[in-house]
Amino acid sequence: MKLASETFFIGVIDFFSIMLPGAVLTSFAQNRWEGILLGTVFPVYKSEPAGWAVFLFSSYVLGHFVFLLGAKLDDWLYGPIRNGADSKLTNHSIKARSLLRTLKNSNSSVVEHLRKGLSEKINEWVKQSPQKDVDPERSLKTLIKELNLIIARKPLNEETSIKDLNSSRRTNRLINRKTQENEVGWLDRFLDREPKKIDVVWLNRLILRDALPREFKRPNSMTRWLAQVIFRKDAHIAVEQAEKIKEACIKETDGNRVINTFQWTKARLAIQCPTALGEVQRLEADSKFFRSLLVVLLVLSAFFVRDGVFSKWSHDYAALAVNVRNQQDPVSSYLWGRMPASTQRALTNQSVEMVQAKRVLDIFLNNIVKGPSIYETNRFAAIPLSSNTVSLLSEDPHGANLRRLNYLLLAAAYPSEIRKNPSWLLVVACLFFIWGSGWRYMERRFKATQQAYWYVITLEHLPTVKTEKEINDS
Q1: Is 398:282 a contact under the CB 8 Å cutoff?
Q2: Residue 32 phi/psi, 5° resolution?
Q3: Cα dihedral sign for 316, 322, 324, 328?
Q4: CA geometry: angle 459, 463, 469, nearest 5 deg
Q5: What are the respective helix, strand and coil percentages of the chain, to the nearest 5?
Q6: CB 324 within 8 A of CB 51
Q7: pLDDT tens digits for 242-297?
Q8: 45 three-state secondary structure
Q9: SS3 of residue 113 by DSSP
Q10: What are phi and psi of 432, to 5 degrees?
Q11: What is the pTM of this model?
């Protein structure tokens, strides 16, 4: 078996897009849920190889769940932003049933103008819809194509047949800019540049949304801005050309697409040019990795936000158990003296699992915090106390304030084991990496699809080029 370097790279990236996110989540959840799951839902492992086996198995399973959630991002995140790169109407930007009903029954000036621009065949289909002998999917696709031709001609507000448009403030700003776009301002004259042109299609979409709000969905400005930043303005050219080539090779069945255009291009490249397919798969593998990383960061951010709001402290129970067991300071000696014999055996017995030791130590510390004050001058003489702790000591606290005082005293006695949670810093860091991972995921995904489309377009227009198999055979 011949192993190419590209295939090895893609396999490694695919492996890490599953195992690495799963390992991160497993290690993060290990300290949180190990004491809950082990011994109750799952048996407690008693050897290091068994622990590694559980860790790898959990990483593999969680990684697949992360990959499954990441696949949904193609529809929830990439798809809407990718569609926002094009100003044209799609089946996602109109409400089909409402639009057909309006075109059939309404007599407004906007609808009359649209009817005049549609072909006789589509107007006849609109009048007779719904009917069983007409394919609605194919007719709707043709209707969208003709509507795109109408809105691409010139601004609808300049049409004499359209009257009394109740335009929104955003639409009016674009209309004013459109009427003044040929006027060169002083800054443009100083910099010797031409004024920006207004996208007529985008302006007409806003006008249609203002005129027929129930039929046309409102264009999302944020989505359009992200699409313009991430994707190129001519992003639709490649996919339209590839769809034409695919439709010439594979006919639709009952108006439905037999195969996705991107999947079809990869299948054709696998037959005609495997080297080009390897480049596309490498870009796709990169996007899958950053997609899974994005899901993991979103999950971690949710936990960090919860910790920052509901839990201000984190505990290192293993180090705390060692310090209390060794009794190297007055506070540890005091805690060891108040500790029940069963808890002492759990901390000293090497055969007892650390999970169980953490549980009993957590119960003991909770009882200490809820009990009487643990402060004594000799006991805390060598321990620096914060101003909040000193202020609570002077107030002779009771109830909740007493519990807070005991907790602050324990935190002062064990600053390395009981410390404040830096969760908000982690949230900010996660948000930064979420933005970077999402950006990289969409950029690599877009580049993979564009590469596949242009490879197929090139092969289609260069029929004399031989495939790799034909070259090797010759």
Answers
A1: no
A2: -85, -40
A3: negative
A4: 75
A5: 70, 5, 30
A6: no
A7: 888 888 888 765 555 567 888 899 999 988 888 898 889 888 888 998 999 999 98
A8: coil
A9: helix
A10: -65, -45
A11: 0.62
